[in-house]
Fold IclR family transcriptional regulator.
Amino acid sequence: MVMKKPAVKSDRRARGRPRDWDDKTPQNTIKSLDRAIDVLEHLGKVGGHTLSALASELEQSPATVYRVLVTLENRGLVEFDSDGQTWQIGAGAFLIGARFLRRTALVDRARPILRGLMENTGETANLGVETDGRVLFVSQVETHASIRAFFPPGTLSPMHASGIGKALLANMPEDRLGKVLSAHPLERFTASTLTARDDLIADLAKIRERGFSIDAEERNEGMCCVAACVFDLHGDPVAGLSVSGPTSRITPHDTVRLGAEVCAAAQTLTAALGGSPH
């Protein structure tokens, strides 16, 4: 997390985009990849199909289609049924689609809730998920204040020194919590960081009791964060919402009020996802 001044608009080309970004002519496509996607899309429409049927319907040579299918099979995107000698969509394609749906549902539905949370509290609102034992920030609505917390999407943060991270840890099943804590050392960032496992466990118990977590300068000096957990339909923690800002604006007295706002927002998002509290 870093302090950020108001953004200055720039007319420069967005990073990660080539100069011919808007040029969609064939010279900018990868023909073999395009052909593979054609095979995958067609197989998804027709279901189980033989090699010869696919080749005929796609007007491609059987040898070319076979190479595409084997490549896709190696990545789990298609599967071969030896009994019926047919090719079908594989589990890998489902997993990719499921990830897209999950991302879309979470981020899209969270956006207006984040905006409302920012407007109600006057502080930056954040959305984060757990990935490989760390917090990944996936969305944010910044406050209009000149001094503010900033977690650009894609930022990774240790869970034990993060408001969202501690909210997620507090609601994890014990076996999952144990694995996360064992895999990641409790690194110290400030004098307030909880680096003793017993201290962190005690703090997680308090979080479960009151319903929200507090990062009181545990990751960055001068910054505070208040967070609550979002649950799926099974009651499992899937994300966290938070507000963050300087300690000059978020005092210990303010955390109760902000906690209530964050909990309400997290409950709204949980309901929007069809979830239920843990």
